[in-house]
Amino acid sequence: MTPSALPKILIADDEVYMRRLLEATFRKGGYQCILCQNGAEALREATALSPDLIVIDVMMPGQDGLATVDQLKQSESTRKIPVIVLSAKGHALTRVHAEQAGAALFLTKPFSPTQLLEEVRRILSTT
After folding, report:
1. Tell me, what's the pLDDT at 4?
2. Is the pTM of this model over 0.85?
């Protein structure tokens, strides 16, 4: 399999540590990674690069992850991309907003990288 044939996962998180953890997890699982630091960057990259899946943090400066998911799901070019929302706060309203916006999965930090990788595989196998 050539590197360009590997599925692409867009990671949007303002914390360097979390981006590196997610990137290492997904690369080990055989995925390419696109790294973004905020919601606006994630929107631009998702539109330009059409990733196979997006993993996005809720709390980011500027445009937060939930507003970004809303915009992704309203755009013709990105609405079908599955999104996993990560949050440091497992607040019920945040979970409901993510699900209503069309997120495929909502995970609360801390999470198991192994479990996340399994969920990514499951989601990508059904799309």
Report:
1. 56
2. yes
